[in-house]
Design goal:
The protein has one domain: Vaccinia Virus protein VP39 (Rossmann fold). It is α/β, with parallel strands linked by helices. It comes from Micromonospora mangrovi.
């Protein structure tokens, strides 16, 4: 058993982090999933690149980016998740943890916590309302809250530099995160959900205003792009609008400049 596995097993047994057990079991210890993630993200990330992981949760994407030899700034506001990230990536000087939410402005903001399913914790009351009204989501309960530090994508760029890739997965708060960005970046992704599609439309509008003009999408957790080449923001919005509710979620990939290369993977 390697050192990281020992740490993860200890986290699963620790009462302070036991709420993450399901996530730790799903996201770690599956070599086939790791290989598939590495192959997919090698399209966007190369050795030496700087990557921002906004909404790092328990760090499975951090692990992928590190296997690709990238430097990672992991942004995660939940204290329990931040504790796990510190333990899992202790001693890795190429991983920086920012224990904060990412939003429209620097300061503080309220975070609604789903203690039974922390991956669904959110700073968006609209996302919670959408969940209460949607099949497959009504059993989810955001049963507590915490006030957390807030940073912006602009402040992260100012502090750490321009990233080659940004992953944003913040449960219906993606449009607010992008409101804190004032410049085009090479490539970024944002999560969409079918229970909160207007968030995705606002994200697309914001990205077009910033100069992004090429888009693709990967449904679910499958790591496969839907379109053989880039599509416009309008085509992406039309595609998302046509998805059935059962599609549930996925990630939209966005480039600033159609000529931007996508590394084969």
């Amino acid at each position: 058993m390697d050192a990281r596995t020992v740490v993860i097993e200890a986290l699963k047994a620790d009462p302070a982090t036991s709420s993450l057990r399901r996530s730790l079991e799903f996201y770690y210890g599956n070599p086939a999933r790791d290989d598939a993630m590495d192959a997919f993200f090698s399209r966007f990330v190369a050795a030496g690149d700087l990557v921002f992981d906004v909404g790092a949760h328990v760090g499975d994407h951090v692990g992928c980016f590190r296997r690709l030899d990238a430097r990672v700034v992991a942004v995660e506001p939940q204290p329990v998740c931040a504790r796990a990230l510190r333990a899992i990536y202790a001693g890795d000087e190429r991983v920086v943890l920012v224990e904060a939410a990412c939003g429209r402005s620097v300061g503080r903001l309220p975070l609604a916590v789903n203690t039974a399913n922390p991956t669904l914790s959110t700073a968006s009351p609209h996302f919670i309302h959408a969940g209460h009204d949607a099949d497959g989501w009504r059993h989810e309960v955001w049963d507590t809250g915490v006030e957390v530090e807030a940073v912006t994508l602009d402040s992260l760029v100012d502090t750490y530099g321009v990233p080659a890739f940004v992953k944003i997965d913040v449960e219906g708060f993606e449009d607010v995160v992008l409101a804190g960005l004032s410049r085009a970046l090479p490539v970024l992704s944002f999560e969409f959900t079918t229970i909160a599609r207007p968030v995705a439309y606002r994200c697309l509008d914001r990205l077009v205003a910033l100069g992004f003009d090429a888009f693709n999408v990967a449904p679910g957790d499958g790591g496969a792009l839907t379109f053989p080449g880039p599509v416009t923001a309008q085509e992406m919005a039309d595609h998302l609008r046509a998805l059935p509710p059962s599609a549930n979620s996925g990630d939209v990939y966005c480039w600033s400049g159609r000529a931007a290369p996508v590394r084969p993977g």
